[in-house]
Design a protein that fits this description.
Anoctamin; 27 helices; transmembrane; Anoct_dimer; about 750 residues; mainly alpha
């Protein structure tokens, strides 16, 4: 049966004899034959070539990358390399074999000489274990078989699922804290003085929210929204934001400990990725010269300029969403449909959030569709921009660029809503307008944090429903279509064809070919999806405390959905070795710092927490009278609303006649005569700034203390490494003494 074990399968169209493609294919296969590869051909609707590497290649691999001591002791005994290592070595040689025309497999696939190259899903015990214990919905809440995943898909994939499982486990605590925050707000909102004042403000006339078809309205109309807002905008939110900053740090520090344990158990501490790549290059070509480190300031400048242009484009998209919301607000208020005109502000916010989600989906497709990015995604770096020395460098550069792209795509609109909405729109009588016509929208009457809450809720719910459904449905439908399209052709029995038709490899190769294609960066997309989710879960979590709960539910499903895709719907990934999650760890640490800054800004600027506190301690009745039974926030709502004289409205925005003697109220701190900022505005501004500095310094100090308090590497692992080093040195000393005693 050993003769039927194949490392890789190459697939090609049936080309005419003597054609250019047929000649190129033959040249490549001849190069493999010169290296000792065994090649088996099976013909169906396509040509299938099974490839098996000679044993001496793996002996070289073992000799080059084995510890020198063990090499001396086992010089005559070569152990079988794991299947994952075989596939990795063969894949490297296939990708780096050069024909006489100086073409590699990648070039031949671009020219359609070969259509596909993939390792096989084989009928082996470990695959059946993974199908039973991992790639099925019945085991949704059971522990992942990480060791089996490693033995089948390699260390890199196993580390991804170990990290995702660890992240999901710790999300339980964040989700409970978020629920507790919302519950605290829900239980106290009925007794909240601020909410009570809004609900009782039946005589407080507010200024119109738009120019046409918008009448004056009563503040008590927003009673329900005020109660909902208080569920997320209260004192508990500040505690929760600090908790999430600590949680993010503890999560990363505990993961570092978990990774250290995994690395020592998998014997990865002495492994070096660059050394392995050099060894594989020498195995493939003994005359290979290493590529030296280089740096080009011109190339770095080009990358920087393109990155800035990319960010400018994404900011432009955010501005387009702002314009949409301003125009939509104006159109909805003029609608004859009562539902649209009555709830124009809420509908504009929700449709804006949906449109933001659509732009996220579109930009995600754009970044991997054409040009250098598409080539880079498939392992073909754009020579104009970057010439990575190793695959690891290529992957790291790609990760940083695409993460920045996706981060701005996802968060540009949220940043506007959190920090600019309602603060740059002017005031009654002097509104800021788009093209001199449409007013910039204001915050929701119940507070700016409500808009951010709605935006995050809509985006996270859509991303975790529609996106996940499509992520699973598209590969499933594609697989079903490929099965129908690529079914083996019915062939007439001709001389010499009966044996081929009955070849046991044929059905296995066809079944693998019918699966969906994977590429060397397939795992990158999974990492990116979860890291963006982690950003949503931490950066603006003060505005949406339920984000960790949604992330937890998503991840429980995501783990097994990915497992089913990888085991049943996609071709086998080329196993890669790794001893950590790579540059993603630095990305997560950067997100942790952004989370502290983002949540500090949300509490200081977006929420009403600071204005309420300033009022309590500087302007409330409690500062003038000693009323122990009085709530110090009594009168806050009236204090936070400025007065505007209706006769001062712009001439072209006066649909109301005969009301020139009346006044209306609006959210701001301005004088009633000249509409300049009051002294209270500057007190609040100073308090916001002081709180932001204090919050961020306290949170960052707590993060640093937590990082120091929790060692990255457990003592058990340190001691095990110490004992191994000591044992290796004693063995080395013993060999030296034996050599000296032999008189050599």
């Amino acid at each position: 049966q050993n003769e039927e074990k194949w490392d890789f399968v190459l697939v090609s169209d049936i080309h005419e004899m003597g054609s250019e493609k047929e000649i190129k294919r033959k040249k490549f296969l001849d190069e493999l034959s010169k290296k000792g590869f065994t090649i088996k051909k099976i013909e169906d609707t396509k040509l299938f070539y099974g490839v098996r590497a000679p044993q001496h290649i793996f002996w070289k691999y073992q000799c080059l990358l084995t510890n020198p001591n063990s090499r001396q002791q086992n010089s005559s005994a070569h152990q079988d390399v794991p299947v994952t290592t075989r596939i990795r070595v063969v894949h490297f040689i296939l990708q780096n074999t050069v024909t006489s025309d100086l073409e590699k497999l990648r070039d031949l696939m671009k020219k359609k000489v070969f259509e596909a190259a993939f390792p096989l899903h084989k009928k082996e015990d470990i695959r059946e274990i993974l199908k039973k214990k991992w790639a099925r919905w019945r085991v949704l809440f059971k522990e992942q078989p990480i060791e089996e995943i490693r033995c089948y898909f390699g260390e890199k994939v196993a580390l991804y699922f170990a990290w995702l499982g660890w992240y999901t486990y710790l999300l339980v605590f964040a989700a409970l804290a978020g629920l507790a925050t919302v519950a605290a707000g829900a239980t106290v909102f009925s007794s909240s003085q601020v909410s009570k004042e809004i609900c009782d403000a039946n005589n407080t006339i507010m200024c119109p929210l738009c120019d046409q078809n918008c009448s004056f309205w009563v503040l008590s109309d927003t009673c329900t929204y005020a109660k909902v807002t208080h569920m997320i905008d209260n004192e508990a939110t500040v505690v929760f934001a600090i908790f999430m900053a600590i949680w993010a740090t503890v999560f990363l520090e505990l993961w570092k400990r978990e990774r250290a344990t995994v690395a020592i158990n998998w014997d990865l501490y002495g492994w070096d990725e660059e050394e392995e790549e050099l060894a594989l290059q020498l195995i493939n070509n003994s005359q290979h010269e290493p590529r030296l480190y280089q740096h080009s300031y011109l190339r770095s400048t080009i990358v920087l300029v393109l990155a800035v242009l990319m960010i400018v484009v994404l900011i432009g998209i955010a501005h387009a969403l702002v314009i949409y919301r301003a125009v939509a607000m104006a159109l909805f208020t003029q609608s004859e449909v009562n539902l649209l005109s009555k709830h124009a502000d809420t509908i504009a916010v929700m449709t804006g959030a949906v449109l933001h989600y659509v732009t996220i989906v579109i930009m995600t497709k754009v970044r991997s569709h054409r040009g250098c990015l598409a080539g880079f995604l498939h392992g073909q770096p754009c020579p104009l921009l970057i010439k990575p020395r190793t695959f690891s460098e290529q992957e790291n550069n790609f990760t940083v660029k695409i993460f920045i792209f996706q981060f701005f795509t996802n968060f540009s609109s949220l940043i506007y809503i959190a920090f600019f909405l309602g603060r740059i729109n002017g005031h009654p009588g002097h509104y800021v307008r788009i093209a001199g016509h449409w007013r910039l929208e204001e915050c929701h009457p119940s507070g700016c944090i409500t808009d951010l809450f709605i935006q995050m809720a809509v985006i996270m719910l859509l991303k975790q429903t529609i996106s996940n459904i499509m992520e699973y449905l598209i590969p499933w439908v594609s697989h079903q279509l490929r099965k129908k399209k690529k079914s083996p052709r019915k062939r007439s029995v001709m001389l010499g064809e009966e044996e081929e038709a009955e070849d046991p490899c044929k059905r296995q190769w066809l079944n693998n070919y019918e699966l969906n294609e994977v590429n060397v960066f397939s795992l990158f997309n999974e990492y990116l999806e979860i890291v963006i989710q982690y950003s949503f879960t931490t950066i603006f979590v003060a505005a949406f405390p339920l984000a960790p709960l949604l992330a937890l539910i998503n991840n429980i499903i995501e783990i097994h959905m990915d497992a089913i895709k990888m085991m049943r719907l996609c071709r086998r990934m080329v196993p890669r070795k790794a001893k950590d999650i790579g540059i993603w760890l630095q990305v997560l640490e950067a997100i942790g710092i952004l989370a502290v800054i983002g949540n500090g800004l949300v509490i200081a600027i977006t929420s009403d927490f600071i204005p309420v506190q300033v009022y309590k301690y500087m302007y409330s009745p409690c500062t003038r009278e000693n009323h122990t039974s009085m709530d110090c926030s009594t009168g806050y709502i009236n204090n936070s609303l400025s007065i505007f004289h209706i006769q001062d409205f712009e001439p072209h925005t006066k649909p109301w006649l005969g009301l020139t003697e009346l006044c209306c109220r609006y959210r701001d701190y301005r004088n009633a005569d000249d509409y300049t900022y009051t002294i209270q505005f500057w007190h609040i501004f100073a308090a916001r700034l002081a709180f932001l500095i204090l919050f961020e310094h306290v949170a960052l100090c707590v993060k640093l203390i937590a990082a120091w308090y929790i060692p990255d590497v457990p003592q058990k692992v340190k001691n095990q490494i110490l004992r191994e080093k000591h044992s290796n040195l004693r063995d080395e000393l013993r060999w030296v003494m034996l050599w000296k005693g032999s008189g050599v």
